[in-house]
Structure formats: C-alpha cells, structure tokens
Amino acid sequence: MPVHLYWGEDAYRRGQAVEQLRAAVVDPAWEAFNFGRYAGDALIDALNQAASAPFGSGGRLVWVEEARIFSHCPEGELAELARTLPHLHPNGHLLFTLQSKPDGRLKSTKLVAKVGEVREFSLIPPWQEAKLKAQVQQMAQERKVTLSAPALQLLTEAVGNDTRRLDNELEKLALFAQGRSVDAEAVGALVATTAHTSFQLAAALLAGEAATALRVLDELLRRNEPALRIQAVLVNQFRTWLWVRVLIEAGERDTQAIAAAAEIANPGRVYYLQKEVERTSALRLGRVLPILLGLEVALKSGRPERAALESAVLHIVNALR
C-alpha cells in the first residue's frame, strides 16, 4: 500500500527523500492536479484527496507535514484514517513527515507502520565519529567521489553531522577531482574547516585546554551561534558527565542503569562517557554547573555575550583543575 512515514531531525535528507518520492510518483505536467501539501491539522482533507483518482498520467502524492495524529490522535481522525487507508487509489501515495519520533504507543502510529513504509532520518550524534565517517563515505560514493583515508577524516571533522553542507562540499570536490581520488590537501584547500560545535567546546573544557576552548568559542561566535544555545549544550553535557561520574564513584557498572539515571537515550553512549570522565572527579564536575547557571543569568541580564562566555570558559577550566 502506498503509505509513507518519514521522520527525523535531519531535515535535509528527509527533504531529499520527499523530492525523490515526488519525482517517482507525480508527472510534472499534471503536478498542479496531483500533488497536495497539507498542514498536520488538515488530515481529513488530505485523506479525501488521497482517496481520489489522479488526473491525467502519473500518480497522486498527498503530503501531510507534522501530522498531529502521531503525538495525539483524536478518535474521529483515527476512525477516518482506518477507514480510508484500505481504500486509497492504487496510484495515490499518502506521505507523512515528522521531525520528532512518532509515538509508537498510539493506534495511528501502529496502523501506518503496519500498512506502510517507515523511514528514519535522524542526525548522527557528534560524538559518534565512526558513524559520521561512514555517512561521509556513503554519500561520497553516491557522488562518485573517492576519498583517501586522511581526506575522509578531515572532511568528517569539517562538516560533522550537517548533511546539507556535506552534500554541497562533495559536489564541489567532485567537480575538482574529475574522477581522480581526493586527498587531504585538496579537502583542506576547498573545504572550510569551521565545523566547531558546542560539544567540541565542552570537550576542550573537560580536558582543561583553555586556549583550545577559547579558539572554538571564537569560531562559534563568528558563525553567529546563539550564546544561550552554547550555554544550554554545555549544561546538558556537564550534567551528563557529572551523573556518569557520580554513578561510577558509587560503584555502578551496569550501563543500562547508568543510562536510565543520567537520562541517556542510547546506552551504547555510556561507554564513551565513562572514558571521557575517567580522569576527573564528581567533585570537580560539580563545580561547573553553578558557573554555567551564572552564565545563563549574565546572558539573560544583557551582559555582552563574548565577555560572559570567555569569563565562564576560564572559570570552568580553573574549577576542573
């Protein structure tokens, strides 16, 4: 049955998948009649159109964005969904897209998953370097770009989990290479290595590398990263590190228990977090959160962002010594 559910925070890859489906289903000459795009609260209208036959050649695609039925499904909409899905036109496709994960407990989610195609487009977390490298390698192969091992490493560090930028950089490298292998020198010359993140800032702070932390902070500010967003990432990261370290010092070794206590969605991440905090203590990590709370107050009180952030960076490095 032609029902599709695409979800995940990677809006670029999700959007590409939507366009691929649209190109495969809808005849451009009849697009005005056979392509419909609806907001999430217009489900009934979308279902009515999806059940009707397409005009002319090609098929019909009805796209519902951020459909509320996957987070809260009123009985009336659920009944209409259950009634309509078995009677969709053979050449009609019904597409749902969501940024967040659909609630798997809802009958609407179970119904769509049972009869349709569900695809996930989640961003790879910045700390999962192996998966990021695999993603770069896969997208490079799709672009027919051959990367040397150093070039792959450098490109991964440069773009992180930004798939839109990765695709643009690979297009640039493909034009440059003209079928030849791309080395690290070419990546360094053509790709701006400015993918510093707040996670890298947190890692530099944890390592006590004040100069590196200030350099990463400068790059983030030059890229207009919101100061409160930087502060929020630091709070979340240091809070997680503190929980993990407290549990380690308490003798806890069960990664599932640590993940549950620290509110870590992926228990597989616990191993890496344990390695990251093995050279510090809960006492030192506990000194950081009050500094970050003071930073939030300073930013919301109108203190100049750069001065407030730089001051916090230096205080955190000192607190972790």
UniProtKB/TrEMBL annotation:
InterPro entries referenced in this protein's UniProt entry, alphabetically: DNA_pol3_clamp-load_cplx_C, DNA_pol3_delta-like_C, DNA_pol3_delta_N, DNA_polIII_delta, P-loop_NTPase
Domain DNA polymerase III delta subunit-like C-terminal residues, every copy: 197-311
Instruction: Specify the DNA polymerase III delta N-terminal domain's residue ranges.
Output: 4-115
- Record's keyword annotation contains Transcription: no
Recorded hits in SUPFAM superfamilies, A to Z, give: P-loop containing nucleoside triphosphate hydrolases, post-AAA+ oligomerization domain-like
Which keywords describe this protein according to UniProt? DNA replication, DNA-directed DNA polymerase, Nucleotidyltransferase, Transferase
| Sequence similarity | Belongs to the DNA polymerase HolA subunit family.
Query: What is this protein's record name?
Result: DNA polymerase III subunit delta
Lineage, top ranks: Bacteria, Bacillati, Cyanobacteriota, Cyanophyceae, Gloeobacterales
